[in-house]
Amino acid sequence: MKLIKTSVKRPVGVIMIVVALLALGAVSLRSLTVDLFPKIDLPVAVVATSYQDAAPQEVENLISRPIESAVSTVEGIETVQSQSQAGSSLVLLMFKNGTDLDQALLDVRESVDQVKGVLPSQAGDPNIMRFNPDQLPVMWVGLTGENVASLTETADEQVVPFLERQGGVGSVNVEGGKEREIQLILDEAKLQQYGTTSQAIMQALSSTNQSASVGTVEKGDKDLQIRVTGQFESLEDIKQTIVQTESGATVHVNDLAEVKDDFKTDAGLTLVNGKPSVVLSILKKTDSNTVEVATNIEDSLKEIKQDLPSDANLDVIIDTSDFIQMSIDSVVQNILIGGVISIFILLLFLKSVRATIVIGLSIPIAIITTFILMYFTGETLNILTLGGLALGLGMMVDSSIVILEHIYSYRQRGYSLKDAAIQGATELAPAVIASTTTTLVVFLPIIYVEGIASDMFTPLALAVSFSLITSLVVAITLVPMLSSKLLQKALQDSGKRYWFDRFLGWINAKYKKVLKWVLGHRKTTVFVTILAIVGSLALTPFIGAEFIPSADQGQLEIRVETTPGSSLEHTEDIVDQVNKELTPFESVIETNYVSVGGGGMAAGGGSSSGNQAVYTMQLIPSGEREKTTVQIVQEIDDKLQEIAGAEITVHSMDSGMNMGDPIQIQLNGPEHDMLRDISEQVVQEIEQVEGIYNPESSASEGVPQMNIEVDQEKAALYGLNQEQVLGQIQMQFTGQVATKYREEGQEMDVTLMYPEEKRSKIEDLHDMKIQTPQGPTISLDEVATFKQMSGPVSLQRENQQPQMNVTSQIVDRDLGSITQDVEQTLNNMDLPEGYNYEIGGQSQDMTESFTDLAIALVFSIFLVYAVMAVQFENFLFPLIIMFAMPTTVIGVMLGLFIAGIPLSIPAFIGIIMLAGIVVNNSIVLVDYINLLRRKGMERYAAILEAGPSRLRPILMTTLTTILAMVPLAMALGEGAETQQPLAVTIIFGLGISSIFTLLLIPVIYTLFDDLTAKITKRHKKK
């Protein structure tokens, strides 16, 4: 090849190109975005709509259903789900993979705009958002102190603006604290005395608090803008607002109500390590580096702490970059350890420091050059791309080993250094290119893989492919050039025989003896191989299956739910009991964040209800504790079951690539009430399945409600309608926002409300007076009836049909086995007609991903065969070589069984990679047998010559590949659990397959050769 010849003759040029690539690689590395996992592009959109004070039933009928109906016709939509709860509607749109989401969102917006007119006037505008997993907080910061009100002010005025100015920060959300509010406490007696109503006060405040530009006038040669100003500038302005009475008299607001600058009624309580707090969740900009953003924030906190009030403390609660950095560091450490092991193996075989340097340079050059390609393809630096480099570490030197060995053989024949380098590299370059191609083509079927499997497979495949391509270029350019300069001394030393040579000689002799035996017992050899494959498949039930291994990130969540309708104070009492039970675990808890009456960290700080509390805990790093997060979760769960009066669930949190619960059963049918009964029955049934942990239904206990039904005919007699009655009830019991008041850049609600003693008891509802348009008041019970009942917390639908979910965590068993048992249990249930179930969650994702990967595996095997057929220009020899593939099953099953690891997506990816790796040793062996036979050697002699002579390079390439992955297989460090199945699969699969390659492939070669001879002989007779 001309490239090889040029490289040997132009060493300075080659060196300068390598130096330039190393420099560019270093720059690219600094520019790569660092994250835990690759970017996950989910084809999901959300339509969120608020409908203040509406019950779930009204939200479903008036908001969710019209929106569902409108968007269901948008092209590309696969599933439409909705959740209707008090005050809000959430419609989730899941599109088919490959859908142009930008165009789809435009279509969704148009569809929603068409139904805006039929939505209630009190409803907010539907907010259409693209679901982006990257838009999750990178850090939570807690502002703690004694005075929660002052903490809120400090957060809003100092901390939030300061943090939003930091590099890479997208936005900062605030949870907890107290929200300032101007309260107008109405005096019912004064309203009657002056003959006015709360509606009149609202109208007066709203119409007075306005400023606007109304045109321009000329004054000389200038145009003056006319502006009418009337916005409230002080509380006194609000107090002195004039309200018109029915008699025409005027009174001021402070004559009718007490004006207070106060805080909104507590909707919840936020505690960090037991102290009242305001929690800030910090989101990064989309393309920002998570680790850099977190570092910037931590540095900036030191600066702002100096300006905070003396009683306020600002501390990091959870920093997601810590686990990312530890995971990245552990993978880098594994790469370094693997690299050292590979170089040691090379030194052991080559017996020369110079020869080892020649080949060893392939590793850093290939890795650093890979960063350039990763940068230009938009990949991030994460545990999967780095894991790909770690997996490809041993393979990076394979091409260089083959080239160097052949150069060495030419040198032994007396060729000069330059001629040996050119001839040796040129002769084997096509074979090396073909061998690398077989490894690379297995990644092409990735185009048929969708979902999470594709998100995992693509970055890893690109990292391995880039490193192998660059190592191939190094093998046919840099290795020949360096060999022509450095190998002379190595050759002089190579005649020395040492212990490893003697050991290899002993291995060679034993191998030759076994090879003779298998060639003499071909049927027995084939039978034993088939028996071993079948026997390994028998291990499948003991191995099991899971979706993606969860990394021990040390985060757990405790959800506390008291009886629906419980007060915030009652929930706080339960929280106090939980805190006491958590005392024994304080040594392993680094941070304890509690949101009482809120949605917690997992819900992004969204509000919930007073009967709920959510704990989010960060444990100390896994290396500093004796137990895993799962074990601690089980112990805490057992401890908290002793608390009466609340339903408490504990589970570990996974911010990785596992989406949804391990077990998710979707129940569908025409009626919500029947689904509730079925879901409770399902929970009871699956609780009996071994491995099921904390099953729960989405059907919560009903919320106590007082239903008020307005009699339209009676109301009409008094000149009233439904809306007027509803408005007055709402005013008395929840208050209404009349306008906004701005002070020093802060905006707050001006809310009209009745005194607490007029709106807290059931008697207040029965005694309530309704103002009629004519002036007189009547009792509410004159136009309405009361009925106490229970109402749903939320209502779910899927594809315009009621739905309910039963979810569960799993423990002590693999997901695949548990799913089979759950399905069997559900099949034995007698569901009413019109009702059905579907298995979703991680179980469904696993099934779909395994199906896609199985198709990719079949296509990969075909591509490997096609490449070899082109290389050999023969259909038969590739078929012989591919008999090495089935033997990988033995190694894979044995490896997973010994390691106690279930089959998962990473393990499946390892199997696909094996399809391209295991044939390389067979190619080397069969190619050399054919070469010897073409030189006139008899078949049996050629096999006995080729096997032992190729044993050394086969051992060298196999051992470098396998041993370089050992650190990954041992799962050393944080986050290594994800790559462990992949490494175990390749190590055992390649190791066992290599043994069979050296013994089975020669036997298969002779069998096919005999078959060909028989067919040829019969053909000649004809």
UniProtKB/TrEMBL annotation:
<keyword id="KW-0812">Transmembrane</keyword>
<feature type="transmembrane region" description="Helical">
    <location>
        <begin position="428"/>
        <end position="448"/>
    </location>
</feature>
<feature type="transmembrane region" description="Helical">
    <location>
        <begin position="331"/>
        <end position="350"/>
    </location>
</feature>
<keyword id="KW-1133">Transmembrane helix</keyword>
<dbReference type="InterPro" id="IPR001036">
    <property type="entry name" value="Acrflvin-R"/>
</dbReference>
<dbReference type="Pfam" id="PF00873">
    <property type="entry name" value="ACR_tran"/>
</dbReference>
<keyword id="KW-0472">Membrane</keyword>
<feature type="transmembrane region" description="Helical">
    <location>
        <begin position="357"/>
        <end position="377"/>
    </location>
</feature>
<feature type="transmembrane region" description="Helical">
    <location>
        <begin position="383"/>
        <end position="407"/>
    </location>
</feature>
<dbReference type="GO" id="GO:0042910">
    <property type="term" value="F:xenobiotic transmembrane transporter activity"/>
</dbReference>
<feature type="transmembrane region" description="Helical">
    <location>
        <begin position="853"/>
        <end position="872"/>
    </location>
</feature>
<dbReference type="InterPro" id="IPR027463">
    <property type="entry name" value="AcrB_DN_DC_subdom"/>
</dbReference>
<feature type="transmembrane region" description="Helical">
    <location>
        <begin position="525"/>
        <end position="544"/>
    </location>
</feature>
<feature type="transmembrane region" description="Helical">
    <location>
        <begin position="460"/>
        <end position="482"/>
    </location>
</feature>
<feature type="transmembrane region" description="Helical">
    <location>
        <begin position="879"/>
        <end position="901"/>
    </location>
</feature>
<feature type="transmembrane region" description="Helical">
    <location>
        <begin position="984"/>
        <end position="1008"/>
    </location>
</feature>
<feature type="transmembrane region" description="Helical">
    <location>
        <begin position="953"/>
        <end position="972"/>
    </location>
</feature>
<dbReference type="GO" id="GO:0005886">
    <property type="term" value="C:plasma membrane"/>
</dbReference>
<feature type="transmembrane region" description="Helical">
    <location>
        <begin position="12"/>
        <end position="32"/>
    </location>
</feature>
<protein>
    <submittedName>
        <fullName>Swarming motility protein SwrC</fullName>
    </submittedName>
</protein>
<feature type="transmembrane region" description="Helical">
    <location>
        <begin position="907"/>
        <end position="932"/>
    </location>
</feature>
